[in-house]
Amino acid sequence: MLYFESKHGVVSWDENLQSVLVEWKGFAYGEEFKSILLQGAELLKQMGGSRVLMDTRQGSAIKAEDKTWIGEFFVRRAYESGLRRLAMLEPASMVAKLSVTRTVSGLGSLPYLQENFTDWDEAVEWLSVTPKPALAIS
Prior knowledge:
Oligomer: single chain
Order of helices and strands: EEEHEHEHEH
Number of domains: 1
Strand content: 25-35%
Mean pLDDT: 90
CATH topology: Transcription Regulator spoIIAA
CATH superfamily: STAS domain
Distance between the termini: 45 Å
CATH architecture: 2-Layer Sandwich
Helix content: 40-55%
Low-confidence stretches: none
């Protein structure tokens, strides 16, 4: 189900995965960048979901001010919207890959699980795993 589309990104709901899909298409920054991520968080909340598949294979580098916004605002917003597992398909461009890697590592400890992948099927498989509840220690 298509939810949002702009020149640089698409946000949709995948019924089979029970997941939000965010697909980046080139370089987005500022309000456009924020809008794509916020639309993803809003759809996650509306659908009562907990999983996001972020496809950054066609994405680009992230501007410094957008990195700051992610750390100061978006991580909390995504978690409050229900995010518990995020599978990220890494950018094809080495420059973009380094930028995304630096951004994620600069966030420190996240309130949700996140893994990076180069293969779609591996990302989907990881995203589909239901974590086992922690065992009570008596």
